[in-house]
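TA notes, week 10

Several of you asked for a full example with nothing omitted. So below is the full record: structure tokens for the whole chain, then the designed sequence directly under it. When grading your own attempts, check the secondary structure regions first.
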């Protein structure tokens, strides 16, 4: 335990790692060199954080989550138990890649959620406050506030920043608005997708 963050004695943190104040790293984790972890994060048991990974403030990684090189989690991302990120579209044991420049980047935008046992194929972007259902396999970008499920994952609806499912259709020829029944945040659906009309208090 330091004055700024906590690392369980069974975990390994390599040299040249940045860890923000208030972050807790629990049992049997491994954080590799050049990883950057923000403030007030939680890494559950047996997490692996690769080199050059960026994890923003207030992220929560449940048990057995592996975040490989060139994956970026913005602020407030939630990773459910045993969810998987990849960083290589053409892996071969006999033809290894030369270095991190060969890995394909993945971006999880602010407030997004990846459900338990979901797989995120590299090269995609998960939009702000989007939600990936448990067991899904994401092979394409997910829009802001989009809810995706299935294998491969498909867009089935919209969710509020608080996580409550909204009643808006997937698309509409006219502009539609809805307020979340749980928190009151208001949204507008256009041909471009779903947009929030209210600011979210931090």
């Amino acid at each position: 335990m330091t004055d700024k963050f906590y690392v369980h004695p069974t975990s390994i943190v390599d040299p040249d790692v940045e860890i923000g104040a208030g972050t807790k790293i629990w049992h049997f984790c491994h954080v590799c060199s050049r990883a950057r972890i923000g403030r007030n994060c939680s890494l559950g048991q047996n997490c692996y954080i690769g080199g050059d990974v960026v994890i923003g403030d207030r992220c929560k990684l449940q048990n057995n989550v592996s975040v490989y090189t060139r994956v970026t989690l913005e602020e407030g991302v939630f990773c459910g138990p045993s969810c998987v990120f990849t960083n290589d579209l053409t892996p071969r044991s006999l033809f290894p890649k030369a270095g991190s420049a060969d890995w394909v980047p993945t971006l999880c935008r602010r407030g997004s959620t990846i459900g338990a046992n979901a797989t995120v194929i590299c090269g995609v972007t998960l939009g702000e406050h989007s939600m990936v259902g448990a067991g899904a396999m994401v092979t394409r970008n997910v829009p802001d506030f989009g809810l995706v499920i299935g294998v491969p994952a498909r867009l089935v609806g919209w969710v509020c920043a608080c996580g409550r499912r909204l009643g808006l259709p997937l698309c509409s020829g006219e502009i539609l608005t809805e307020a979340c029944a749980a928190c009151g945040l208001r949204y507008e659906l256009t041909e471009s997708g779903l947009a929030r009309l209210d600011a979210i208090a931090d």
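The longest strand covers residues 154-158. Use that as a sanity check on your answer.
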